Amino acid sequence: MRKQRIVGTSVPRLEGRDKVTGQARYVDDMVVPGMIYGATVRSRVPRGKIRKISFGPGIDWNEFAIVTANDIPGKNCIALIEDDQPCLADGMVNHPEEAILLLAHPDRHLLPKAVAAVSIEYEPLPGIFTMEASEARSQIIWGVDNIFKSHLIEKGDVDAVWGNADYIVEGEYRTGAQEQLYIETNGMIASFDAQQGLTVWGSLQCPYYVHKALMKLCDLPADRVRVVQLETGGAFGGKEEYPSMIAGHVALLAMKSGKPVKIIYDRMEDMTATTKRHPSRTRYRTAISKDGRILGGEIEFTMDGGAYETLSPVVLSRGAIHSGGPYHWPSIRIQAKAVATNAPPHGAFRGFGAPQSLFALERHMDRIAQVVGLSPVEIRRRNFLKPGETTITGQTVNEAIDLGKLLDRALQLSDYQAKKERFARQNPQSGSKKGIGLAAFLHGAGFTGSGERYLGSVVGVEACADGSVRVLVSSTEFGQGTKTVLCQIAAETLGLRYEDVEIAQPDTHEVPNSGPTVASRTIMVVGKLVQSAALGIRKTLRAGGVLAESYSPDEFRAACRSYVAEHGKFRSLARYEQPHDVVWDEGKYRGSAYAAFAWAVYVAEVTVDLTTYNVSVDDFVALQEVGKVLHPVLAKGQIIGGVAQAIGFALYEKVVWEKGRMQNGQMTNYIMPTSADLPTIRVYFEELGNVHGAFGAKGIGELPMDGPAPAIVNAIEAALGVSFHSIPLLPEDIFDALGEKAGVESAVSAAQGER
Amino acid sequence: MSESPQERGKGEIILTVNGKLVGVRAHAMERLLDVLRHDLGLTGTKEGCGEGECGACAILLDGVLVNSCLIPVFQAIGADIVTIEGLAADGRLRVLQRAFLECGGAQCGICTPGMILAAFHLLSKKPQPTLEEVREGLSGNLCRCTGYMQIFEAVAEAGRRGGMT
User: Fold this and answer.
1) How close, in Å, is residue B77 to chain A by CA atoms?
2) Same domain, A507 and A563
3) Which of residues 135-154 of B touch A (CB under 8 A)?
4) How far off is chain A from B151, nearest CA to CA, in Å?
5) Helix, strand or coil for residue A746?
6) What CATH number corresponds to the domain at position B144?
7) Which structural domain, as residue segments, surrounds residue A260?
8) CB B64 within 8 A of CB B126
9) Does B133 touch chain A (CB under 8 A)?
10) A667 touches chain B (CB under 8 A)
11) What is the dihedral of CA A138, A140, A146, A148, to 10 degrees?
């Protein structure tokens, strides 16, 4: 095989120069001639009937474009999986901050005053604000039973194992909502023209999701809706589905006013009205043999979906499938459900359900270790999946992954044993307690089950008149390095220089639908299609007799030029085909849940200060097997960034709810990690390769979100001897738990004193 | 002719931005951020939170790092303002900007202009900062993508190569 020259090296980020000079154009930097500004009037109650809308004094309402549900030309919905979420509430609101009415005006400074002058009378209805209340069904707020979706996954005969178990270990674990907190808030611009149709520019992950939603909402054919992604200032899943809503709003205002309209959310609107990570509750009941082997288990995985279904069924499915982790379960029954509450819908966020269930599992493994009397290391080692064994969905592990070896390397890199012993010696004499904890986990790359087959992604590569090659995908760049790595793949495939390859701006009029930019699928799935499409270009040039079998980059460019001069520019398209060894039974939920898994062992070292109850993470080792690393600097950046977000998920980021509304929707009171809060995050890769990914790549974007929270909470338990079952874990939670423990201990010693 | 409501109360304000004198019509209390972005078209300065928490709108005002969302424009009169556009005004990247590119210091790019100005400010005070000084110096600038490590590397690398050039 030819040595790779470009893939595997850290070429400059394609749009990097624009980003470091301030020239990169984000949606709020764009001005369309004649553009006016839009704003959204939102519900102030969690649930109720809209009785009356009135427009208050002091505002010249004739100057405003006003849009209500009655102005919607098509169906009043945000098309996604189900059409249950309205674009504008019509007669009924189901969560706080639900959009009811839209305003637009040339002077953006007038909008906040106008929004405040619209008063809405409601007939309030009782709301549901917890998963437990939703399950109790005192109010039915969605469908017939408040359940958006449930999944049942079964393997083996779990009912038969309880009699044989030496230990039955149970536990319940919870994770809170988490805000994506991209630094660029959401924003969109729309322009409408009766001839050309609708054009929308914005900050978004999935151009064709927006395209589909606008066609249905505005009742326009595909060729009269154009969606263009601009530079996007962070997304993390938070710009997967909600941008369709904002695009709908600017589109309706542009159609009503006849002018281009821009909506930019301010931070509080973005935080209180848009999606967050689903809160979760996971219950494990596990049967364990006396030597610490898992015999079987029952898992109940429940997520709070908020008021509308949106993406909850698929977040639920990924979370449920990951709840078995990297372990061998001879038998298992997983019952998963997403329930409705009167909060804004929870949605996509890096990890997509897996960080929730893996937090529970990796806490539970430490609990099993304690009950059995083994170390956290040994309990994991004895239960790791091995090649030839099957996952909880019956998928055979058919790669040479050696999780025991991965674990050993992580222990060595983190100096785990020596530190553990040292902390045990030093903690009793110290006012701050140190601990070390670990988590082992996996993350499936690409859509779950048959998802990639249903998507049927298409990628194009174009030969241009100037001899360059252009990649055509709807896959978007929002920091991960999509553009850079896809260009590397095309250049490597064709034997060109990185500089010889360009990539088109994601614009639904220009690029085919290569699927949404989610699910750690872009480099593995779309990258592989870029490879195929690029090969098609070479084949055409060779067949046309303009390219020799071996060639230099300049000869390739010359061949493109002469072919295009004669025949016009041409495109090679490649469409996804499910590999023959990837088979999924949607009815039984069995088979290959993912074409590839990335595997990881993370180790966290913490100090808990017993004066402030503050936890600091002092060292963090992130070791993972991710197939092949195509761009070392970008790959490392993905891992560090994901770990940092997950440290926030574990220790800092708490959404404070009051009747379905976020109360701390500001950066001053919703706290994400700063540069002073994080340890040096040490990143290491193992590279086994992957037959299904471009040049052996697997997905890596979401993986680092899964492991840090349980590793950190395991370390805190090791430090304090107190077990914690939910995150975020704030200093006040630790204070309370230690107070309770002290109370119990003093009560016990008092009772003993009496005897 | 009477002024439109939007024009009422506005006055001519002269500012020194990236070494050039520029005139704008603005309210005295208008945010410097808005004047830079809307009136002067210098959109490299970003808005992240609007309350001085995230640092995306950071600029240099007489060599001091400030959040331009908290500065009324009248306070900037007579001051020397430097925005991200002023750093590579001749088209040549600064050492610091090149280091950000090479080390992976910019991902989505939205915090990058403010982050680079904060790093530039730090290097002007401490040409060879320690890791602790970098952590402290950048702690007013939030980045959600990178986890900061590659930004630290970029600043250290720029320090080694001569920082301010």
Assistant:
1) 23
2) yes
3) 135-136, 138-152
4) 9
5) helix
6) 1.10.150.120
7) 31-125+181-273
8) no
9) no
10) yes
11) -170
Nearest by CB to A183, from B54, B93, B102: name it.
B54
Q: How many domains does chain B have?
A: 2
> Alpha-carbon distance A71 to A92, whole Å?
17
Give ipTM to 2 decimals.
0.98
Q: Is the pLDDT of residue A188 over 50?
A: yes
Burial B122-131 (b: 16+ CB within 10 A, else e): bbeeeeebee
Q: Considering only the beta carbons, identify the residue of B84, B144, B147 that sits closest to A22.
A: B84
Query: What is the mean pLDDT of the segment spanning A612-621?
Result: 98
Instruction: State whether B142 and A183 contact (CB < 8 Å).
Output: yes
Under 8 Å CB pairs connecting chains A and B tally to 170
A434 and A348 co-located in one domain: yes
Residue that terminates a domain, selected from B21, B52, B86: B86
Strand order in the sheet with A615-625: A432-445, A596-609, A615-625, A681-686
pLDDT tens by residue, A393-451: 999 999 999 999 999 999 999 999 999 999 999 999 999 999 999 999 999 999 999 99
Q: What six digits make up the tokens of A531?
A: 């490879």
**Interchain CB contact of A666 with B (< 8 Å):** yes
Q: A640 in contact with B at a CB cutoff of 8 Å?
A: yes
Residue B1 contacts by C-beta under 8 Å, 6 or more apart in sequence?
Answer: none
Residue count (chain A):
755
Containing domain of residue B59, as a range? 11-86
If DSSP codes are grouped into helix, strand and coil, which group holds residue B149? helix
Decide: A241 and A218 in contact? Cβ < 8 Å: no
- Please report residues of A whose CB lies closer than 8 A to that of B109: 15, 18-20, 24, 231, 233, 479
- Per-residue pLDDT 10s for chain B (165 aa) are 456 666 778 999 999 999 999 999 999 999 999 999 999 999 999 999 999 999 999 999 999 999 999 999 999 999 999 999 999 989 999 999 999 999 999 999 999 999 999 999 999 999 999 999 999 999 999 999 999 999 999 999 999 998 677
**Which DSSP string corresponds to A605-660?**
EEEEETTT--EEEEEEEEEEE-B--S-HHHHHHHHHHHHHHHHHHHHT--PPEETT
Q: Is the pTM of this model over 0.90?
A: yes
The domain total for chain A is 3
For residues A134 and A312, is the Cβ–Cβ distance under 8 A? no
Would residue A113 count as lying in a domain? yes
Contact criterion met (CB < 8 Å) for B148 and A678: yes
Inter-chain CB proximity A678 and B147 less than 8 Å: yes
Contact B141 A642 (CB under 8 A): no
Residue A148 domain-assigned? no
Each residue's pLDDT tens digit, A320-379: 999 999 999 999 999 999 999 999 999 999 999 999 999 999 999 999 999 999 999 999
CA distance A218 to chain B (A): 31
Query: End of a domain among B86, B103, B127?
Result: B86
